[in-house]
């Protein structure tokens, strides 16, 4: 339930940060997110699934969400470089790839831990929790606006994303 809260917060803050604060044109932002940004996202999902089958789901989840959490913390700490188009564009392109790399393994883990006789119901419940988590994050974004600076928001997003990894290490999917 906690893992996607940061992503919900981030999805509310990113367009405002880039368009209103960094002066990006809405078209440019959209082209990066939905254009070149989809390549690492798609690749992360394909590669993450393949690697999860080879080395294990939990390792891929830790790698994907760990990379996203650390990338987002670093992005928040390096706010003075956000006006550098390379830095700001790189974050927009790389972070969806990290998320999809981990998410494909999360879905696989959801399927594995679902009891066979109730698999559809259990998997649906897991997916609903993930969606609720994103909704909670989006809702929290409204409360954080004006309380935390943008760089603090991204550090918080990274911490929220990393926090469930500790719990994940305690899960025995078998």
Largest sheet, if any? none
Mean pLDDT: 92
Strand content: under 5%
SSE ordering: HHHHHHH
C-alpha geometry:
globular
Number of helices: 7
Topology:
Blueprint: H1 5-21, H2 26-36, H3 38-55, H4 57-77, H5 85-113, H6 119-144, H7 150-168
What does this structure look like?
This protein is 81% helix and 0% strand. It has helices spanning 5-21, 26-36, 38-55, 57-77, 85-113, 119-144, 150-168. The longest helix is centred in the middle third of the chain and has 29 residues, at 85-113. The chain has 7 helices and no strands. It is globular and about 50 Å long. The chain is an all-alpha fold.
Descriptive key words:
174 residues, mainly alpha, globular
Structure described in brief:
The chain is an all-alpha fold and 174 residues long. It has seven helices and no strands.
């Amino acid at each position: 339930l906690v893992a996607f809260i940061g992503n919900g917060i981030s999805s509310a803050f990113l367009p405002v940060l880039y368009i209103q604060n960094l002066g990006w044109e809405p078209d440019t932002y959209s082209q990066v997110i939905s254009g070149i940004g989809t390549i690492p996202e798609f690749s992360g999902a394909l590669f993450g699934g393949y690697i999860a089958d080879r080395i294990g789901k939990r390792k891929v989840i830790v790698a994907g969400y760990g990379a996203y959490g650390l990338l987002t913390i670093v992005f928040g700490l390096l706010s003075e470089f956000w006006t550098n188009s390379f830095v700001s564009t790189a974050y927009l392109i790389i972070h969806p790839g990290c998320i999809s790399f981990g998410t494909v393994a999360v879905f696989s883990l959801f399927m594995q831990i679902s009891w066979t006789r109730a698999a559809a119901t259990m998997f649906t419940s897991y997916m609903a929790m993930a969606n609720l988590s994103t909704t909670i994050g989006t809702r929290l974004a409204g409360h954080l606006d004006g309380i935390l600076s943008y760089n603090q928001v991204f550090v918080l997003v990274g911490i929220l994303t990393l926090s469930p990894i500790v719990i994940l290490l305690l899960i025995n999917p078998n």
